[in-house]
Request: fold
Amino acid sequence: MRFHHTIFFVSLLSIWSLTFAADLQQAFIDDEEGDSLTRTKPTYIGGWGGVICSTCLLKPDTTKAYKGTWHDTTHFASSNSSSGINFEFTGVSLEVFCILPPNNVEATINYSLSFNLDGKEVGMPFVRTPENLTTEYQYNVSVVNLENLTNTEHNFTLALDNTVDSVALFDYAVYQFESSATGTAGGQPTSVTQPAQTGSNGAMTDFRFGFGEKLLGTALTMIILSW
Reply:
């Protein structure tokens, strides 16, 4: 019986070692500061403005936006230009967060976004009309969530619909990547300080991801129960 316990113990240790050899970690792409690992900033296509804007009609609460900033743009169907955001990341998942405007302001508030990854359309279009909005700004709204990607470099584009008047207030993006004992997927050291995420109520919450630690705890519990 003890022999079987030993085999079970060795198997769990093998799984644990493999988990730590390729652990999942998170990085952020802030609208202003850019990638928390590479420091590369997003490329804004068309006319985008930041927090300091005396003529902007949409003015979210800086204390509820991630790192107190956002970038916004209004696209008019009558224009011949395009509006969007482009950035690169290396990882297995990506989630993009925006701020939604209230429906009681005299401004363009329609959302109509599409998404492109590595030259292909991905995800569902994100569409919001005044009927879908509330009388308050909505923060940390996920507009697209892409999972099960290869842990390689990807090129992502968020585009506003050219056929309708629409707006976008980009706050930040989060991506997960596989790291190893020798370094991260992007060549950065594994001891990267993760920024905190601003919740919808403005409170700061830790956004660390410790999958390896969770699996280790589960493995140890199973060992104790089986012994």
Q: What stands out?
A: Confidence is low (pLDDT under 50) at residues 6-10, 12-21, 181-216. The helical segments are 2-21, 211-226. The first helix runs from residue 2 to 21. The longest strand covers residues 166-179.
